[in-house]
Write a structure and sequence with these properties.
The structure holds two protein chains of two kinds. Chain A has helices spanning 2-5, 18-30, 41-51, 67-75, 95-104, 116-127, and strands spanning 10-14, 34-38, 55-59, 85-90, 108-111. Chain A is α/β, with parallel strands linked by helices. In chain A, strand 4 (85-90), helix 5 and strand 5 (108-111) form a beta-alpha-beta unit. In chain B, helix 2 packs parallel to helix 3 (55-67), helix 7 runs antiparallel to helix 8 and helix 8 (180-201) crosses helix 9. The longest helix of chain B is centred in the middle third of the chain and has 37 residues, at 280-316. The radius of gyration of chain B is 33 Å and the shape is extended. Classes of the chains: A alpha/beta, B alpha/beta.
């Protein structure tokens, strides 16, 4: 099942703010990426398991499971946890938050409100570190 | 919220009637090309009816529907369209013209089927969740509940189970110093080495596991043959010693001497006998706790022996000092040396172990004094013109009235490193002492900066001349942009404070490249040059110079590679 979705440039966006998710999806699709959107942590984890995306863009402040919790769970995934790049979307930019992000295994972060150009650069630099599809 | 939207690309009024039979139901119409995307965007889609004859549209809608758990029904205008719906794995289809009742039947069936699939998916996810708790991804080992199941029948049949508990007492220290990623690597190496050891020693049916995922102690089950005599304490000790040597060597090869010096293993064992009156799991849990307790008791006995070793060390002054060079990232020249004390006795080689034992025996001041005295003695020969000596100190040392009384070295050439990890309890008194030492010419470095959650404010309070970044921030920094951002912030902050940042623990060219690019002015690490005067690396001054030249070359090359990439 996973193979029909997974691709070296597939991106999973997990954000409970639907408007924000659509803006991010449209931007990334316009640049040729395959984008899937989930609106909460559980949905995100379920789709992660199915899609095996190269990158996950993950909102921190979500109802239910927080982005930190979801990031930690994704990074624990037995076969895909080590290769996925997780980018946190966060309004928090303090030193402590970045340390918390490292603790959960996150690879990068983008500060909210999202600057689209910055987001695109962030996606590109992380994709550059993803190996060719297995 | 119950899904109530019937999404479609067709303006058939019958669909509105079908939707109306669901409480709150309504139809949303999108163009055929927008239909697939709308499935992910709209919240509360109960089903999708696609009437397009374009095979691409039908396929895209069916695939999207599967991903978002929305059942897809195809309204077919021909037999060919039915085949297409089947090939696209649509949940249902009907042939036009169709009555409202027939359409409703198809839609309901598809919804019920999708719900069943969703329940199955939830169960599957739950299973995946359980599996991730039952197997440890880092060490590829099962956890205790799995091994209880696997051993249950054999244990019942043979009536006896021996449980061994491998307590790696200082693995927590490795995590504290180097971060969790490093300990994960060390645990993976350890697990592999233990597997090799079991195979090599022909230890038979030893079943290896962790208590919980990501735990840092190992457990073994061994079911002896019925007529086999029991394993003696002496035999366990002998095997444990061989295991200690074997794993220690593997760790030294893979992770270096400093990590290997923190490796210490204590093996406890417990015999469990099958008793049909007692639940088997509880028998085993009690056995595991007993084995862990035995391992800790052995460690306590060893600790008492180590205190005796430490007293001898202090009396004989039997510790030596290694000097770990710190380089200028710009010129590749040696800026200074960090003095690292090592015990001559194997059991006390690691400074962490020495100080841990000293704290138990209330000998911290004595040990600190000896370390500093030895470091200063050797520095006279070691330090070149303008080079500085970096000495590690604990805030506790500052209360020692003799602290800073060095005759053999000018205080202007000494940098005192204070770790951010140890809490400073009496801040005003500490600050007063610090200022007095600063007035005499001593400089200060905050060590392990960025390891705690204290942030930059607490660093600024100490007004350091140098800020040494915590090793965990440097590990794999080339692939972690959050670490890069933190280091960049620290470099900017240090500039404002008039301090210099030192990146220690550099183990690869990629790490060196990255910290240079981020503007870190001083670098230190095994990749550049290991501490001089190490065992097996005693090459004298010529060897030192050659190693320093090689390091300078690496630092300069790192700059070139960065420029080339740009």
């Amino acid at each position: 099942m996973a193979s029909s979705f997974s691709s070296a440039t597939s991106i999973l966006v997990v954000d409970d703010d639907r408007d924000n998710a659509v803006i991010v999806r449209d931007l990334l699709e316009a640049h040729g990426y395959t984008v899937y959107v989930a609106h909460d942590g559980d949905e995100g984890l379920s789709m992660f398991d199915e899609i095996r995306p190269a990158i996950v863009l993950l909102d921190v402040m979500m109802p239910g499971r927080s982005g930190w919790e979801v990031c930690h769970a994704m990074k624990q995934h037995p076969s895909h946890g080590r290769s996925v790049r997780v980018i946190m979307l966060t309004a928090l930019s303090a030193w402590n938050d970045k340390q918390a992000a490292i603790q959960t295994g996150a690879d990068d972060y983008v500060t909210k409100p999202v600057d689209l150009k910055g987001l695109l650069n962030c996606v590109k630099r992380n994709l550059a570190l993803v190996g060719p599809p297995a | 919220m119950t899904p109530s939207i019937l999404l479609t690309d067709c303006r058939d009024p019958d669909l509105a009637s079908v939707a109306a039979r669901t409480p709150g139901g309504r139809v949303e119409v999108r163009s055929s090309t927008e239909l697939a995307a709308a499935i992910g965007e709209l919240h509360g889609v109960m089903a999708v009816v696609v009437a397009s004859t374009d095979p691409e549209v039908v396929r895209a809608v069916a695939e999207r529907g599967r991903l978002y758990h929305a059942p897809v029904i195809v309204a077919c205008r021909s037999e060919l369209a039915c085949r297409l719906a089947m090939e696209a794995h649509a949940d249902e289809w009907y042939v036009l013209p169709a009555s409202v009742d027939e359409i409703e039947r198809r839609v309901r069936t598809a919804i019920l089927r999708a719900r069943a699939a969703e329940v199955a998916e939830a169960n599957r996810l739950e299973r995946v969740g359980f599996e991730s708790l039952l197997f440890d991804a880092t060490t590829r080992m099962p956890t205790l509940p799995v091994m209880i199941e696997r051993t249950r029948a054999l244990f019942k049949e043979h009536g006896e189970l021996v449980i061994f508990y491998l307590d790696f007492i200082r693995f927590a220290k490795i995590e504290e110093i180097y971060g969790w990623e490093k300990l994960d690597d060390v645990l993976a190496t350890t697990a592999e080495a233990v597997r090799q050891f079991i195979a090599r020693e022909n230890l038979g049916d030893m079943r290896m596991m962790l208590g919980y995922t990501h735990d840092d102690d190992f457990i073994f089950f061994y079911v002896p043959e019925r007529d086999q005599r029991g394993t003696t304490e002496h035999e366990i000790t002998e095997v444990a010693q061989r295991l200690h040597r074997f794993v220690g060597m593997r760790l030294e090869d893979e992770h270096g001497d400093d990590v290997a010096a923190l490796f210490d293993i204590f093996v406890g064992s417990a015999h469990v006998y099958h008793n049909p009156k007692v639940r088997l799991e509880r028998l085993i849990y009690r056995g595991v706790r007993e084995a862990a307790h035995t391992a800790r008791s052995i460690e306590q006995r060893q600790r008492a022996r180590k205190v005796t070793d430490l007293r001898r060390l202090l009396h004989d002054r039997s510790l030596y000092v290694e000097y770990h060079p710190i380089f200028s990232a710009e010129t590749g020249r040696i800026f200074g040396y960090e003095a690292l004390a090592r015990g001559v006795a194997r059991t006390l080689r690691s400074p962490e172990v020495m100080f841990e034992v000293a704290a138990d025996a209330d000998l911290v001041w004595e040990l600190s004094r000896l370390c500093r005295a030895r470091a200063v003695e050797g520095a006279a020969e070691k330090l070149g013109e303008g080079q500085l000596l970096f000495l590690n100190a604990d805030p506790h040392d500052f209360t020692d009235p003799t602290f800073g009384n060095f005759d053999a070295i000018d205080p202007h050439r000494v940098v005192i490193e204070i770790t951010e990890r140890t809490a400073i309890t009496d801040y005003p008194a500490f600050r007063e002492r610090l200022n007095a030492l600063r007035a005499r010419g001593f400089r200060f470095a905050v060590d392990d900066a960025g390891s705690g959650y204290a942030g930059l404010g607490s660093i600024a309070n100490l007004e350091p001349d140098f800020i040494k970044l915590d090793i965990s921030l440097i590990k794999s920094i080339e692939t972690n942009f959050i670490k890069q951002n933190l280091v960049e912030t620290m470099v900017g902050f240090a500039r404002e404070q008039g301090a210099m940042v030192i990146a220690e623990g550099i183990e690869s060219a990629a790490e060196l490249d990255t910290v240079k690019r981020l503007g870190v002015p001083l670098v230190q690490g095994f990749f550049l040059q290991p501490p001089a005067g190490r065992r097996g690396n005693e090459q004298g001054k010529n060897g030192d110079r050659a190693a320093a030249r090689a390091a300078a070359r690496r630092i300069r090359q790192a700059g070139t590679q960065v420029r080339r990439r740009k």
